[in-house]
Amino acid sequence: MFTVYFAKSLKNGKIYVGQTSKTPAKRIAEHNFGCNTWSKNNGPFKLIYYEEYCCKADAVKREIFYKTGIGRKIKKLIIESLDSYGPVA
After folding, report:
1. What is the pLDDT of residue 89?
2. Are 14 and 8 in contact (CB under 8 A)?
3. Is residue 48 within 8 Å of residue 66, measured between CB atoms?
4. ω into residue 87 within 30 of 0, thus cis?
5. pLDDT digit string (tens) for 36-47?
6. How far, in Å, CA of 18 to CA of 24, rounded?
7. How much is the CA Rg of the chain, to the nearest whole Å?
8. What is the pLDDT of residue 4?
9. Nearest Cα to 1, choosing from 43, 53, 48?
10. Which of 17, 27, 84, 88 is the most buried if burial means most Cβ atoms within 10 Å?
């Protein structure tokens, strides 16, 4: 299983979009550990959304889509709709 995820920086509110074959929780833990320079400078992170895919190619395409103009707008709508529901227990 492959996952496309949104992680929110608790430091500055930036939203990171990524894809992984790991569980979203494990990948967020790696980001919070500071696995690269961007993560070190912008962490800690909180997982706010994810989608699962059966093949890597679909996950990669979806990640790339969320980084395009229309994809950013859709990402923003997803985040706004999540915010309107409040925290999930």
Report:
1. 43
2. yes
3. no
4. no
5. 888 889 989 999
6. 10
7. 13
8. 98
9. 53
10. 27
Residues constituting the chain: 89
Which CATH code for domain 2-85?
Answer: 3.40.1440
- DSSP symbol at 56: H
**Two tokens at 40?**
């070190």
State the sign of the Cα–Cα–Cα–Cα dihedral 10, 12, 15, 20.
negative
CA diameter of the chain: 33
Which tokens hold the place of 80?
């706004």
Q: What is the pLDDT of residues 28-75, one digit of tens each?
A: 999 999 888 888 899 899 999 999 999 999 999 999 999 999 999 999
Every domain of the chain and the residues it spans: 2-85
> SS3 of 21, please?
coil
Determine the pLDDT at residue 43.
Answer: 87
